[in-house]
Amino acid sequence: MTTTITRINPASLPDASRAGYSQISVVEPGRLAFVSGQVAWRADGGAAPGSLAEQVEIVAQNLTAALAELKATPHDIAQMRIYVVGLNDESMGIGMAAIGKFLQGAQPSLTGIGVSALAAPGLLIEVEMVVRVD
Description:
It holds the Pfam family Ribonuc_L-PSP. This protein is α+β, with helices and mostly antiparallel strands.
């Protein structure tokens, strides 16, 4: 899918591109898809694993499946929100390593949010996306 999303990291704000995201994403007129928060639940109903590293891999698989359904790529993502239970330096490192791999060099606007709990016991990470689609 070819989309027009302009990424901006103005000199007046911290350079987010060093961390793999953009401060501002400007989306040209068109359709947007709002992808619900994806957690470490598998399509076959399998239970979420216990570790953050394992969960974020399943989340990335779910995000990839959502993009495929939209006929989109990570470069079509305008914005992501990442919710992590007990967010700290270690969990940020684990989560962002896998999310960075998933993004394949795309740098959407991104917000990381520490939370005390998610929708079900044992879930450690949830990621939602806004995607520009044709």
